[in-house]
Amino acid sequence: MSKEKKQISKNLVYRVPVYLTVSRRLLKDGARYITAPQISAITGINVETVKKDLSQICKTPGNPKLGREADVLVSEIIEFGVYTKLTNAVIIGAGHLGSALLNYDGFNEWGLQIIAAIDNNPALINTTINDKQIHGVDDLDKIIKEYNVQIAIITVPKEYAQELVDHAVAAGVKAIWNFAPTHISVPKDVVLQNENMASSLSLLNYNLNLKISKQKRKTKRK
Fold first, then answer.
1. Which residues have a Cβ under 8 Å from the Cβ of 96 and sit 6 or more positions away?
2. Which domains does the chain carry?
3. Residues of the chain scoring pLDDT < 50
C-alpha cells in the first residue's frame, strides 16, 4: 500500500478490492460522483466504515453533497492498492483448479501477472492454457529467476504441496498463495496466504442458516 503502510488494518486491505470493484462498476454505468452511502448499500459495509476507509484511501477530499468524483476515486483506490504495479506469479499445478486460475483474465487488474504454470503431467507439459505455457517441475527454478517471480500459487494435491513450496522458496519466491488443503510451513521472511475452501463453506452455511432462522422468527411474530 502506498499510504501510511504501518497504520493500515488488515480489514481495510480486504475491503479495498471491494471498493474498487463497486466504484469501477458505478463509473462504467455512467456515475459522475460516488458516495459512501451508495457503496454501503451495494456492499453491506457499514456506512461509517466506508467513510473512514475512503478518507484513508483518498488524497482528494470529497464534496459533502455530491460525494467523490467517480474517475478520481477509482484512480486513487488503484494507487492506494498498488494495483498499477504487476507482480509476477507462477501457478504450480495445472489441474482443474490451476487451469481455472490460468483461464481467469482479471488478475492483471489486481496487480498480479501469471507468467506460466508448472505440472508433472507429461500430457500437459509444453502445452498452453490461455496463452500461458505449462512447464515441467525441472523448469521451476529457471522461471522464478528469469522472470523475477515473487508469488507461487499452489494448486497441487496436498501430498505434493510442501515439497513444491520448499522448491519455490529455495528458488527465490517471497510469497505463497496456497490452495492445497493442507498445512504449509514457510520461513519467517516468506508471506503465506492460505485459501481454506472447507472453512469458507462452513462459514457460508453458518451464515445461511443464521439468516434462515432470523427470517423464521420474523414470520412467527407476524
1. none
2. 5-80 (1.10.10.10), 87-198 (3.40.50.720)
3. 1-6
